[in-house]
Amino acid sequence: MKNKLSYIWRLIATGFCFMSFSLGALLLSLLVFPLLFLLPAKSRPRKARRIISLAFRLFLWLMQALGLLKIDMINQEKLAATPSCLVLTNHPTLIDVVALIALMPNANCVVKQALWQHFFIGGVVKAANYISNDDPEALVAQCADDIAQGTPLIIFPEGTRSVPGKPLKFKRGAAYIAMHGKLPVTPVLISCSPPTLTKGEKWYKIPPRKVFLQIRVIDPIRIDQWANPGDPPSLAARQVTNRLEQYFTEALSTHGSTTSGDQGTHHQIA
């Protein structure tokens, strides 16, 4: 009976959180972001991203307060130490996007073009001036230029959420961006237990217990060591992508445990 009541409560709370997220995004678009037009055009996206980051922190607090989620952040200070960086991370759940943006108030990210037309989220994406993936040729230069101007960039090399039980399969876009800007990469390892909000999973397919989300930031790495200087860009990108897949697979195997007893500096997102 106790487990059944817990399940019913978490189902109701999950529905409430999804409704709050959608309505919150719509209210920001209708009531808050229009006020940013009083500011100079160049400063609007940065202000919008900070507002979104704060809203996401409040949303994560709500999920934790309702007993749906626990978050453990390891080595968070490594992100603050490199404010202009390319952050690459695996993508096991929809929640990890919210958590990373909550942690990085000025971060930009690449989003699907479809989100620009989304009824609830479209206004948020446009206000923050997130980077659309609709033009792959312009995407690489735009991302590298954004980082060069001091803006951290979050990229999920898989291009979509991971499939539980399947090996990581990275696209080459992240490698092209890192090579184009001669950028070091800050890897972030994300574990979610039990799995929830994976690719294609409906919101009401809730897990049997509270979700534990662990986010671990790793020291930056240089990817130019993984490509021969004389190789054409396509071959170099393939080599770097393969090495990134191998690196993340091994790192997740070593550090990807969703137990909070690992070494490192632990924080909670409140």
Give me the strand/helix succession: HHEHEHEHEHEHEEHE
User: Class, according to the CATH hierarchy?
Assistant: Alpha Beta
Distance between the termini: 31 Å
Describe the oligomeric state of these chains in a short phrase. single chain
What is the strand arrangement across the widest sheet? 4-3-5-2-6-7-1-8
Count of strand segments: 8
**CATH architecture descriptor text:** 3-Layer(aba) Sandwich
Strand content: 5-15%
Low-confidence spans: pLDDT under 50, at least 5 residues?
A: 257-263
**Biggest sheet record:** 8 strands, mixed
- Global mean pLDDT: 89
Shape estimate: globular
Q: Which percent range fits the helix content?
A: 40-55%
Number of domains: 1
Taking all Cα atoms into account, the compactness measure Rg is 19 Å
CATH topology (level 3) name: Glycerol-3-phosphate (1)-acyltransferase
Structural class: alpha/beta
What is the number of helices?
8
